[in-house]
């Protein structure tokens, strides 16, 4: 190989490696290390895309009920197992027609292309299945707030999140363990 060609390729190789490392770091920053779900930034980018393309999309906020009690009673490893189980259940429910994310703590978020096709009752049932961990079966519960974008005057993700949040707190106010659609 000609020495001039080799001298020209070395910097290009360095930039390629550098670009690959940066891309990997960016991808890692968009995934929650515990659950593997999108972080807020990663989920927002995916959700914005789905909202623009699907007028029948719906946004959900999920908050685990009594999570602090679970952590305090059974330990943080059990709490982590509950977060991972919730993430798996939400990811499975969203499938290829949606995206799930973890906002932080015990709060999760999802967007699906069409709520009618997604079966909200199946999600509620999945979120309320007991957690089998360390030889014990522990009860799990979640409050879910839902906003269909078609119900908003302008279908913006920020407005859908606010409406889903209000619906989630209304579900919590009704004694938890359920869902509530925004109105």
From TrEMBL:
Domain GGDEF: from-to ranges: 55-183
Enzyme nomenclature, EC number: 2.7.7.65
Protein name from the UniProt record: GGDEF domain-containing protein
UniProt superkingdom: Bacteria
Signal peptide interval: none
Keywords: Nucleotidyltransferase, Transferase
GO MF annotations in UniProt: diguanylate cyclase activity
Organism encoding this protein: Streptomyces viridiviolaceus
Keyword Nucleotidyltransferase attributed: yes
First-level EC class: transferase
Record keyword Manganese present: no
Gene3D superfamilies named among the record's database cross-references: 3.30.70.270
């Amino acid at each position: 190989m000609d020495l001039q060609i080799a001298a020209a390729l070395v910097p290009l190789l360095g930039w390629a490696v550098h670009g690959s490392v940066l891309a990997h770091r960016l991808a890692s920053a968009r995934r929650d290390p515990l659950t593997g779900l999108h972080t807020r930034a990663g989920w927002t980018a995916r959700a914005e895309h789905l909202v623009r393309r699907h007028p029948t999309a719906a946004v959900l906020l999920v908050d685990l009920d009594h999570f602090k009690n679970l952590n305090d009673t059974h330990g943080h490893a059990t709490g982590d197992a509950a977060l991972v189980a919730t993430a798996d259940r939400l990811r499975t429910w969203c499938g290829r027609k949606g995206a799930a994310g973890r906002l932080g703590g015990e709060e999760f978020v999802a967007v699906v292309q069409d709520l009618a096709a997604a079966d909200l009752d199946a999600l509620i049932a999945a979120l309320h299945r007991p957690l089998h961990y360390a030889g014990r079966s522990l009860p799990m519960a979640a409050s879910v707030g839902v906003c269909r974008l078609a119900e908003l005057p302008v279908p913006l993700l920020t407005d859908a999140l606010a409406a889903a949040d209000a619906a989630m707190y209304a579900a919590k106010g009704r004694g938890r363990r359920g869902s509530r659609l925004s109105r």
